[in-house]
Each structure stands twice: as structure tokens, then as C-alpha cells.
Amino acid sequence: MLARQTRRSISLHQATSLGAIGRPSRCLPRPLLTSTLGRRCVVTQFQTRQRRGSESSHAPSNGRGLATAVDDFKFANSPYSPLPGSGMSPFQGAHYLRPFDPTTPLVIPEPGPPRTATKINSSGIPGDAEDMLPVFDACVRVGKLDRAALVLKRLNTIGIVPGEERIVLHNQYLRASLNQMRTNPDRKQAEQLHKWYELEIRNEDIPQTAETIACMLKASLLSERGSRLERLINRYMSMAPGEAGLRVLSMADILSDSDLAVITEICPTYNFAPEAEDAEVTLVSDEEQLDIMEGLGDTAEASETPAYPDIRVTPQRGEGLETLKRSLGLINQLENVDISKLSVEEQREFQIRLERDSIDAAIAKWRTDRNKLQKIGVQTVLSANADDGSLSQNLPNWLKEMEARLKVEIAKIEESENKASKSEEDLERCLYGPFIRQADPTRLAAVTILSVLNHGAMMGIDKGVILGRLINDVSRVAQEDIRLQFDDKRKKEQRRLRKVNFIGKEADIKDSPDGVIIDATGPEVEEKEEGYQKSWSLTIKAQVGSILLKSLIETAKVKVVKKHPITGDRISQYQPAFSHMMQPRKGKKIGVLVLNADLVERMKREPVGDFIAKHLPMVAEPRPWTRMYEGGFLESKAPFVRVKPGDVEQKLYTKAAIQRGDMEQVFKGLDVLGKTSWRINNNVLDVMVEAWNTGEEIANMPPLSPDLDLPPEPDSSEDPLIRRRWIRAVKAVENERSALHSQRCFMNLQLEIARAFRNQTVYFPHNVDYRGRAYPIPTYLNHMGADHTRSILKFAKGKELGVNGLRWLKIHLANVYGYDKASFDEREAFSTDNLASIVESATNPLNGSRWWLKAEDPWQCLAACFELKAAHELADPSKFVSQLPVHQDGTCNGLQHYAALGGDTWGAQQVNLMPGSRPADVYSAVANLVKESIAKDAAAKNRIAEIVTGKITRKVVKQTVMTNVYGVTFSGAKSQVCKQIDALYPNLYKECGIPHLLISTYIAKHIFTALATMFRGAHDIQYWLGEIGGRVCRALTPAQLQQISDSFEEEKTSTGSKAKKTKNPKLAKSGIEELTQQFRSTVVWTTPLRMPVAQPYRKTTMKEVRTCLQSVAYSVSDQTDPVNRRKQLQGFPPNFIHSLDASHMLLSALQCNELGLDFAAVHDSFWTHAADVDVMNGVLREAFIRIHEEDVVGRLAAEFEARYKGSIYLAHIDADTPVAQKIKELRKSSKLSPKEELMLEHKRNTLRLSGNPWDLEAAKQIVTPASVYEEMAACEEDVIIREETEGMGIGCIPENEARLDEAAIAKEARQMAENTEDELATRESTEFTDDLLEGMKHSRFEQEVIEPKKQRVVVKKGKAPLAIWLPLTFPALPKKGDFDVAQLRESQYFFS
């Protein structure tokens, strides 16, 4: 136990802060109730079921996966050997990479044919499962069992949910019915329940669980007596003989002790063991609670410290900042208490409070009971002397009026549900009614008001907010709030188990014909139960969001005061605060919510609230990941994998992988990242706040009042086109001013968060995207932010530097300063030589020489200056305990993976995979190659080459080189280079007369040529991956082929004869198009850490939902939708590389954690303490080698062969080739339709793959275009895939953009020159207008140069390609070079 004084202090601060929220102690999780926090708590401990994936599952594994070369690696010979006496063991082998067989990949069930949409029926029950399941859940929760029964009946009728899953729904219904019967015993209702059981469960042959039998036993006990009760109990217990009966009787949350006594008396083969349920009760006395509260004043007084300076507020259109301050009230009240010093349970309680603070605080501030709020410590924005009509006075009125309006709406919902004949409005109410009933109207009103005001402030309150987005935002926050409320209730009613013994003889157990119970105590069933607390569908979100917004629009008023234009009297009027209207946006009319002009002005002066508490850092260690939605925050739900709402496939693969145990390593890796503890670097924060409050532009801080001059307005007599150009210039200035203002507002939020957490230890829970790349979930402040956010974060734990650590700290400073291409010794010397400037920067950062501001990352440089200064203040700097993260960055990490995959020796040298005395710089290498080629062009008198000579720098080419490996197009590369030319040489156009875009096109061409020369192996792999993606996306799976075959046979049967031959070429074409609409195979692969990756690119469809406000259109996609073929094949190579670098990062994190290192990462930048950099560097190399010493590409090919076995894809070959001619002759004689041809090939392929000699012989007798193709050993290039992969490879330039026409450039230059200001006055009006309009066309070069080339390409193609169905095979693996990845061990600059 803590000492009494310490305990009193902790309890004081906790009581002060927690009391302000008004959350009753009964809402706390069970582990927290045992802590002595100033509350009277009662805790009863019961035997609970073990859940799969508990925290214990995250213990490090002792097993080994594969024997690797790591075992033979001696750390003593490595330049990254552990420091003497560091206590860290060397790298023990990457046993986290468990072997998996690529020939048996994880697969999910193939979706059936698309279901036709089913409309809502006359009772108001929807027809789609995604709507019915949430509606059922909501009806059960609010006690509308009659409507829940209608949903279940329709589910039984439609049959879209399997029986094993339907029983979970029936169990929910039975439990809810029992709860009603306990309150109001009704024999009639019990009879109805027995009838329900017989008709809807037994007659439907739905498998039952122990919960089902327990519920029916309870129903019998509540309603029956005497012999009928005995018969019912005997009957139900006969359905669960032996051990199954134990599971039934162990459900203490359904059957009470007295119930069990009755059952065991009737069925004496079971014996109740009451000692197992003895409760341990922990009480906190009222006296102790009073004693704690009485000590408030003394402890608060003792802990007073000087107030931290406020951060100068940036005037904002919206109340995001003010709400943030209110949401941070809990932290601000404890600014002088270090929460990390409390127990784990108390830290978790603080975190739960922080996650729940926003809505409670907002409602409390708007309540009229101000005395009570002040008594419990809640600060309110309402003040007695507030101006009449201020926004702070309007909010409580809106809350009250909307609350009343929602109560009226709930009454109307009741009426609509009871109507026999329902109108359209009644049916809508039946759909959204159960969800409105679930929540407290006050909270729903608060959710709506805050969401609307915040969303308006974020999206631009003076322009109107697009209604579709707003509806989605309001419903999302409402759903989250409802879920949190019911989570509290669910925790209180957590299921309990009791100990029951079976005392009968096993031989006496007879298999009863009624024994239908299934084992339903495993984790799979628990996941199903939780799964039915479904996310709201798009339809439900639209309906709920619309009614909430409609209620706000109808009730929210603002008092507008104006001066009469004639009399001068002040007159007032109450006007709607919000209006719904249609506005033209991008050529379409869309619904928008427009704020009252007077309200807009008030919001500019007086900020409003925001739900951002769940986006803040955590003050307790994140919950370990165990399932799709279990991990990270303690109460707020976040998905393990970030996917778009319509991306069902990735969710299915992820859940299947979790159930199979394949995600354990990814879970553990994210847990390692999440449990890294951080603190605010107060030295940097102090300087940042001081700089911020000056309002000046310092480092990346935008100025408070930017000095942007507007161009002079032309005279009204000037040509209208000149005025249009002036208007565009004014808009450009205003857009820049707005961008700077938005940037400053966001930085304002970040500084407020840092200020609030400056004395706390914080954590950043992580999740992954669909490729496995990890991201922090808190969005506002994290280590993945810009320079200023990285600089104000440091590790919570410090480590003594040591000699090597001091060296790495100096190297780190040189890196962030921008001196990162020199050798390590030179970088260390740079910091040593500039030590005086470093100390001066840390001593007087803003009023001195400001040396640190010259750095590439100035704020991070300043943080390193503080650290080095503090170290050198000691007699021995190596003894300094450092908390600063030191970064090790990869050299264009994507190219590193490509070089290793392709065995590309030259490429490996350029990205530091091979040893070298100095770091290789791929960007400088590309820049040098570009310079050489441009010099040759300049010698040949190329005008553009002469202009850009001497202007090609590393910075010009860096972004294009970095992103080319991740799929940037040539068009994107031109824009990237143009952006750099604009920044580095803004006056170049005035000097040479050639537009920057043309110059950038020329430079980008040379960059791509250089890349193709340097990374030949990577180029080949990219094309191989693209070819695979192109074939997969044009394939039909065996399941699809069987569906097509079945429907084809039904067509033939229905017509009574063989399907008609398609002679008309147009009909044949339409047959192909019908089949191509069924191309839905997405590219799926498995990462080295066994995470399945499914690319999400599909063709979306629009779904229109009619609501009480307007029709809302959403883009939706499903497994049955056709894939977006171009995106699939072009996205596969970069996404595959992303999945490799993500695996490398997580594998490194796991091993660093095992060695006791603090570890953080920003994709390919890895961070640890300076003292541990040597150890981490060894881990990074070994993890990379461990991944690439296996045949990654070969394993991928084997996985694809197994995953898509039996599929058939549509190839397109040149129509003039010999094999195409022979196929045409075959088709003339066979006269088969495209579908018949496909079915014949499916039959041949099935026989061929069976392995049966008879089937193989039969397959040889079938002649199809594919058999002709195989017989001629053809290897024709797929024309369509070639077109779609054009420009995709590293350094590949599309044919239509490969040339620069000198005449076109000269013509463009003349055109631009003719539009100069000097000539405007002397030219004829008509000629001026024509030329200016042409000059305004930024794409003139494309119109005159590129488009004609496209036309030439079309003419050159001639005939359309020939489409044929071929068995899905994959091209041969690209030849690998001779680079040995093991050489990486000796490369000291791999990560540096």
C-alpha cells in the first residue's frame, strides 16, 4: 500500500478531475473498481470464461521458425556489435518469421451471385441483411421485441444468414424476452416464447447452444408449476446430456441459485457447488471517501507551481481550439501530477475518462444546473455577463429545443410502428426509430450540435456544408456515443459462470433424439455474438443522420439584431440558424446546409466544440491487439486494419487470418510500437510557444498576419479578359492566405495538446493500412507529423549515452541539419566543429544568431542542440542520460527492396546495400546521369538543354526518384519537377520564354531514362508484377465458372434445346462484355509476416437513399463488383513493395523489443536511443536479410499458382499473328458463342487439372482456342496488358510522351511571348482575345504535341486484338542478378 499521505494526494487529484465529468463509478471497468479512488465500490469476482487472444497471448514465443544464416553471424565481427557491458544479448535470429506454405494460401469463401435488392416490407422491416441486423440489435436493446421478432422471421424466410449465426440472434431475442418476464411475469408471454422456440428454432432446424436451453429453462421456471414444469425441464435437459448439461447449468447470469436448486432436484444427476460463487467484496467506506475529499484544499495548495504561459490564439472560423481546451480539462487540472507514477489501474481509469470527456463536458456546460457543475469542478463557458444573443447562450437553447423535438419524434415513431397501413414517412420512421430510441435525447442533441458546428468550421462555414458528408459525420459520432453507453451496461451484465458437477454415470447417458445442442463456448461464437452489434449500414446512417439534422434545422434559432435603415431603431428577429438548400457544385446540384450569416459572424468571434478526445495521445499503455476491433484505445473503437467502408474483402481476409492465428506477429509488432512511452520535450516546447506568441514566421510556423499584396485592380474600361486574369490573381493570393491560416490553426491545436500533456507520459496506439504499414491512431499530435511535432516528442525513458551514444547524437544533429551525405566521421566532426553554435542555439535560441534555423529540420536540430549542450555541461558527456530519439533512415527504401529482389548489383550499390567507405546517394547519382545526358544535348545545340545546364540539382530530381518506385506516372513526375523549378528558379520563364512545364517534361524524361539504366532488375520485376496483375484482373475463378455453367445449363433446359449460336458479331461482342462484367478477382498476396493483402480497387456503384431531408447518394463497392483493372495492375508493384517494407519494420520492432530497446518508426525511418543505435542497426540488417534470403518472388509466384488455380482469363493477342489466324478458322467452323466457348474451355481445363489419366485423354480430344494456342506453343504478348502497363516500370516513359517536338516548343514559346504585357496595348482586340484565350490553355503543348501522337498510335494499331480464353498461368520469373544480400552485413550506410 502507498503511504497515507501519498494515497490521499493521488486520490485527491483523481477525485478532482474525475468528479468534473459526472460519470458514475458504476460505469468503470471491473478491474478499476478495486482501487481506492475516493468512491464507495463493491466488487464481486466470479469465474469467467477464458477469452481467446488475451494479453498472455502476446508473450514472446520461444519457438524457432526456420534455420537462417543469422545463426552463423557473429556480432563481434559486425560494425554494429553491442556495447560492452550493455547487458543486451546479440540478435538471436528472426524467429518471428514463421514458415508458411505458399501452395496452401489463406482463402475466403467465394461470394455468390449478386442478390437482388429487397425493399422494405409493409411492416417497416428492411430486406437487406446489412440493414436488418443492426435494426434487430437496436430493437432488442430498446425492448421492442415485437419488431425484433418480425426481423427474425424475415431473416428465416429469406435465408441469407446461416443457422449457426441465426441462433446467436435468437438467443439475444430470448434473453431480452426473459428480462421483460422478470420485470412483469406473464404466463401468456411465456407461452408465446415456447411457441416461438418450437416454430422459429426447432422447426427451422437451427442448431442450438447452451444459452438457448438455459433461456428456455428459465422461461419454464418463470411461468410453470407442478408436473408441467417437470416435463419441460426434463425435456430441455434431455437436449443437453452429460457435459452439455453442465454448460447449460453453469450460466449464472440466466439461471439463479434457486433456479438451479429446482432443476437439480428434478434432474438429480447434477450437483450445484455453491462455494465456487462465493463473492469477495471490497468496500471503500464513506469515512475514507470523506477523508479524501477533505484533503483537497491542502494537497492542491501544496502542489501549486508557476502557471505555464498561454499560447496565443489564432482567430479561427470554428471552435475546434476552445473545445480542445475543454476536452483537455482533465489533463490541465492534473498538470502538476505525473499520471505515470500511479498504478496501472488508475492510469487506465484516467485514460477512460479522457476518452469519454468530450460529450459529457459539452452537455454539462449547456445545462442550467450551474451550481451543481461548479461544485463538482466542471468549468462552463456560460457566464452571467455574456452578451445577449452570444453563441454560448444559443447552444443551451438549441440543446433544450432539439431535445424536446426528439422526444416528439420518438412518440411519432411509436405511432408509425403501430399503424396497419404505413406511408413512406412511416416506413422511414420504422427504420431509424430503434436507433433514436437507444440514446438519451440530450446526448443525441449534443452530438448533432457539436458535429454540425465543428464540421462547418472545418469545411468552411461561410460556403455551406455538403449535406451528404455532414449526415455521415453526425451518424458516425452518434453511433460511437450509443456504443459507449451500451458498453457500460454490457460490462455490468458480464456473463458469469458457476461451478456445477455431473454426478451421474457416463454409461447412463443416452443419446436423446432431442439432443441438438452444439458447443457454443469457444471464441468463434463470442466473435459472432459481438459481430452482431453491427456497424450501421449506409442506409441507416443516412436515415439517422437526416432525422437528427432535420430536428436541428427545425429547432435551432438565432436572435438577429439589425438597425432599421430609415428610423435607425434596433430591431430583432429570431431566424433559423441553419437552412437546407440546393447549390450548384461542379456542374451538379447538391444539398448543402447553410449557416445563418449572423451565426457565421458569431462563430468567427467565438469558437465552438469538437469530438477530439479519442484522437489525443493516451496516458495509459494501449490495450494489446487481439481482434479486428479490440486493441489500442481502452474504450474507443478503432479498426486493426484501416479500410474504406465498402472494402469488405480486406476485412474478411483479416478476420480469417486472425482466426487462423496468422496475425499474431503483426499484433505483437503493433503492441511494441504502442507501448513505447513518450514525453513532451519541454525545452523545445518553451521556445516554440515563445516563437508562436510573437506571430512571426519562424521555421515552419506561418506568420499570424502574412504580408501578401493584392495586385492592382485594372480600370473598368480594360478588356474583360484582363479583369478575369486579375480576379484569378486575387483568388490565388486569398487561397495562399487561407492556406497559411489553416496551417496556423492546425499548429495551434497541436501546441495546445503538447502544452496540456507536457508533464505526462503518453502513448500512441497504432494500427495498419491494408498493406501492413503502421500508423499512429491519434491524429493531431504524433511522431509521424512535421518537423515541429517530431521535435517536441522524446522518449519517456532515458539511457546513458556512453561513448558510442555520444557519437550517434552528434551524427544525428548533422543529419537533421542537412549534412547527411558525408561519412559518419565527417558528420561527427561537423557537430564537434560547430559545438559553439550548438551551445549558443540552446542557450539563446530566439535572440541569438539563430544558427539552428539554417538547418533542414530546424526544430529537430534545436532539440539535438539542447541534448548536446546538456551532455557537455557534464564533466564526462558520455554519462549524460539522453531521451532524444536518434533516427536511422533508409536510402530510398523501395529501391533497396527492388535491388534485393532483382539481385541488381549496380542498383544495390546506389542504395547502400553493398559496403562502401562513404554513403551512396541515389538522388545525386541520378542527378549526375541527368547532367551528363543534358550536356550531350547542349553540345548538339538543344535549346532546352542549354537553358537547364547548371540547374539540375539533387533537389530537382529527389521527389521523382523517390516516388517512381511507388508508381508515380510520367505526368506526375513532370508536375513534381515543375514544382521544384518554380521554387528554385522562379524567373526562369521570364529569362528564356519557355514555360516551366515544358522544361520539366524535358528534365523528367532524362530522370526516367537514368532510372531505367540504373535499376534494370527492378524494372523487370515491376513489369512481371504488372503482367500478373493484368491477368488476375481478367480472370474468372472456378466458383464463378461453375455459377456461369449452372446458369447456362438452366437456360438450355428452359428453352428445351441447345442455346442458340451467336452469328451476329455485335451479339458476340455483347456476350464478351457480359462476361467481362464478372471480372471480380482482386490481387491478393501474403506478406512475410503472414498478413493477407487484398487490393481494394473496384468499380464503385452509386446507391441512393431517400431520407426525410433529401435523397443521398453514396458510392459503394462489394465483392461482387467488377475490379478496376487498370488500378489493380498499376497498384500491385508499389503496394507489394510497401508490404515488404512494412514487414521489415515490424520484424525489426519485435526483435528490438526482445533486446530491451525503445523503438519507434516512421515507415522507413527507425528511431531509438543514441546508446542503442549500434544494436538497432544490427537488427535492421538482419531483419532485411532474413526477408530477402528467401526467394520472395518465387514464393509469390507459387502462391498465385495455388490461389488462382483453375481460373481462366481473357487474353488479347495481335489479330495478325499465325495463331490468331488459326483460331479464327476454328471459330468459323465451330460457331460457338463467347459463353459456349468459355464453358468448353472450362470443361477442358477441369479435366486437364484433375490428374486422372482418363480425364487427361478426354481433355486432349477437346479443341478450343486455348488448345490451339498451346499446340502452336504460342507466346504472344497481351496487347491490352501492354497498353495498361505502359509507363508503369521504373524509368518507363509512355510512348505518347516520349518525344519533345522542337517546332512545338518554339511555337509555344512564341505564343507565350506574344502575351506579354508590353504587346497587349498595341494589338488588335480580336487578335488579342484569340491569342490570350490560347495562352490561357495550359495544355496547349499536349493538344499540339501529344494528342496527334495518340491518333498516330491508333492508326498504327490497325485491327482490334483477338480475345481468347486461356487457363490462368503466369509468366516466367525474371532472371535474378548476382547480388548477395548477405553483403548487407558489412554496409554501414544501409540505414544512416
Would you write up a description of this structure?
The protein is mainly alpha-helical and 1392 residues long. It has a domain at 799-882: Helix Hairpins, CATH 1.10.287.280. The protein is 52% helix and 8% strand. Helix 40 crosses helix 43 (1125-1154). The longest helix is centred in the middle third of the chain and has 37 residues, at 720-756. The chain is globular and about 105 Å long. The model is unreliable at 1-91, 275-305, 368-388, 506-515, 519-532, 605-611, 1057-1070 and 1300-1357 (pLDDT under 50).
Summarize the structure in short.
By secondary structure, the protein is mostly helical. It has a domain at 799-882: Helix Hairpins.
Question: Which CATH class of the domain at 799-882 applies here?
Answer: Mainly Alpha
Indicate the structural class. mainly alpha
Query: What radius of gyration results from the CA coordinates?
Result: 35 Å
CATH architecture of the domain at 799-882: Orthogonal Bundle
Unreliable runs: 1-91, 275-305, 368-388, 506-515, 519-532, 605-611, 1057-1070, 1300-1357
Helix content: 40-55%
* Multimerization state: single chain
Function: DNA-dependent RNA polymerase catalyzes the transcription of DNA into RNA using the four ribonucleoside triphosphates as substrates.
Region (Disordered): 1047-1067
Enzyme class: transferase
Domain DNA-directed RNA polymerase N-terminal: 349-675
